[in-house]
Design goal:
- It is a single chain.
- By secondary structure, the chain is an all-alpha fold.
- The chain is built from nine helices and no strands.
- Helix 1 (17-38) packs across helix 2 (41-48) and helix 5 packs across helix 9 (184-195).
- Helices cover 70% and strands 0% of the residues.
- It has helices at 17-38, 41-48, 52-56, 62-76, 86-102, 106-119, 121-148, 158-175, 184-195.
Amino acid sequence: MPEKPRRAPTGAAVLQPQITAAVTEAVLDELAASGYVRLSMEAVAKRAGVGKSALYRRWPSKQDMVIAVLAEFSIELAEFADTGALRTDLIAALQVLHAWLTHPQMATILPDITAEAGRNPVLAEAVRATIGEPRRALGTELLHRAIERDELPADTDIELALDLIAGPMFWRLNVRHAEEEPDYLDRLADHMLRALDAR
């Protein structure tokens, strides 16, 4: 007896892309407006115009939902260009980092998530594993390219160099809340080149 063809899933079994997009935007908006602690699945569902079941079909908890959305959004904003030279690679990376830190939603979300991660070890580990490490991996590729081009010493401390790339701008924008001059990224890149003993 021939096997009946399987029906394509419908309704609740389908994760519709347009709903996922609406929920993603709602998560970012709610995080920016309310912060991580006060964010609720109910508020996200209401803002997205969906039922809570649409959220729980995608993520089992608030933390899973927030981390998944932030990770996808953050990695998309972390593609570092290969320009063929360390200085221009650094400037391109700094421009990408600047765009992430000053994005209208992330400028509010990132300090809040960072503060909450300091109180919540589980959240901190999730942020590190799904956002921090993938972004650092892209920076590692940038530095290894420079080593292969003999622009950096072979014994360059990669971990320290990655901190040096990300740290100054995060401090300036999210801690000092200072304005940057038009040539800030160029000057920062040049300081980094000297600190890294670039050739």
